[in-house]
Amino acid sequence: MSTHDIQVTVNGVAYQAQVEARLLLVHLLRENLRLTGTHIGCDTTHCGACTVLLDGTPVKSCTVLAVQADGRKITTVEGLEKDGKLHPVQQGFTDQHGLQCGYCTPGMMLTSCALLARNPNPSELEIREAISGNLCRCTGYVNIVKAVRQAAERMRAEGSSGAEAPRTAAAAASR
Amino acid sequence: MIPSGFDYHAPATLPEAIALLREHRDDAKVLSGGQSLLPLLKLRLGSAAHLVDIGRIPGLEYVREERGMLRIGACTREAALEDSELVRTRYPILHDTARVIADPIVRNRATVGGNLAHGDPGNDHPATMLALGAEVVAVGPEGERVIPIDKLFVGLFATALRPDEILTEIRIPVPGSRSGGAYQKLERKVGDYATAAAAAQVTLTASGTIERAGLGLTNAGKTPVHATAAEAYLRGRKPDAATLAEAARIAAQGASPTADRRGAVEYKREMARVMAARALAQAVERAGRN
User: Fold this and answer.
1) Which chain A residue's Cα is nearest to B4?
2) Is B209 helix (H, G, I), strand (E, B) or coil?
3) Which of A40, A96, B217, B267 is the most buried (most CB within 10 A)?
4) What is the CATH T-level fold of the domain B63-173, as seen in this structure?
């Protein structure tokens, strides 16, 4: 079994780690870096609780090897708050009661951030499609959609594009 | 869940990757987007002593028309296919297909080449590529060869790719005028494999009869099903409702789905018929528009 020296930038901080090839990104974040805001839900690529942004694109971190993230930038829920101020998406989830148990919330918010970075004014349908890989078993999604809409409005008013530049797989391929 | 141990290789070039595959043969697996392979390794339904990650090889992500073919680089993400203006406007069947693969987050990682090379009859691209009459490029130690899509799927999770070959490109003939296609999928929820799904691509003659019809079924047997009898039936006929219904019936006869939590064999075969009928009707409708 090979081991690898990797370097990742998580929430703007550079980390170096020696990892087994089989180490999953979610375990690197939670166990090596002690960033436990990223949750493990189903562990089978279905629920999206472990969603993080990899170079700005949402991925299920239970289905990415840590070594695949070598040299890349990662955003976790811990990276959303800036200078003691909640990200507009976090504020939206708070104000609109977009969570109950909170287990899906970190992943749900990161997916929402990526959506708003590429689509500042999404329709309800676009929001629902974007979060269709993130399962919530409490809210019935209604308040989550409201939370994302609030965040979209605030961000448009503030003229901010969110925490991440909109670098999507699509943008990379269409070059 | 943690996979059992393996050596990870991240070659920077295709020849390097092929040399690794040649060295490790059956002990190696190619890692592309990893959205099928990593779950398999985590569940320990499969194992590999060596993973050869082709994700860091430049030049394998593109979607472009060139010399009469739509060429898709094997490492093109499903999300990129879904967002491609070229695909949306010129290949609606591909756009339909990309949109219903797994979920949007999985599509940010999953690749078109991986979807085919995995050899899973439950994957969505195989039926679409059968309907489109696609071919794939495989590169190995002796150079490259072109495999017609009909020859790619040889068994359950088994393809005609040799252990030291890598699928690098998918080629689809640019459809002529009066062509249209559609993919119709019945799924229990977003992210599920198809209960039944059908891909149809038709080209009409100037007088409105069917010049060419391609029809493929997803999750309808051990390998993706190419409904050749239905295609032959359609050729030269007027695409009226009765004809399309009969073609869908013939296609479903050729389906041999297995019973699981998605339904019984009889139900799945019936749904294959319904999906085939809908895909054909939508394909004909789209063909009439251009």
Assistant:
1) A22
2) coil
3) B217
4) 3.30.465
A63·B1 Cβ contact <8 A: no
The dotted CATH code for B181-284 is: 3.30.390.50
Residue in chain B closest to A2 (alpha carbons) equals B7
Q: Given CB atoms, is B246 within the 8 Å cutoff of chain A?
A: no
B41, B55, B63 ranked by CB distance to A68: nearest: B55
Kindly report, residue by residue over A21-63, the tens digit of the pLDDT.
999 999 999 999 999 999 999 999 999 999 999 999 999 999 9
Q: Does B61 touch chain A (CB under 8 A)?
A: yes
Pick from A146, A75, A154, A65: nearest CA to A110? A75
ipTM of the complex: 0.95
Cβ-defined contact of B76 to A173 (cutoff 8 Å)? yes
Do the Cβ atoms of B8 and A4 come within 8 Å? Answer: yes
**Domain boundaries along the sequence of chain B:** 7-53, 63-173, 181-284
Q: Which residues of chain B are modeled with pLDDT < 70?
A: none
- Across-strand partners of B18? none
Could you tell me which residues come within 8 angstroms of residue B195 by beta carbon, excluding any fewer than 6 positions away? Answer: B186, B187, B188, B219, B262, B263, B268, B271
In angstroms, the separation between the Cα of residue B80 and the nearest Cα of chain A is 4
- Our CA-based measurement puts residue B59 at a distance from the nearest CA of chain A, in whole angstroms, of 10
Neighbouring residues of A128: CB distance < 8 A, sequence distance ≥ 6: A141, A145
Pick the closest to residue B130 from B223, B236, B222, B210 (CA basis): B223
Identify the structural domains of chain A with CATH numbers, from first to last.
3-79 (3.10.20.30), 88-158 (1.10.150.120)
Strand locations in chain B (E):
7-9, 28-31, 50-53, 63-66, 69-73, 135-140, 143-148, 153-155, 158-159, 166-173, 179-186, 196-204, 210-218, 225-226
A43 with B63: Cβ contact below 8 A: no
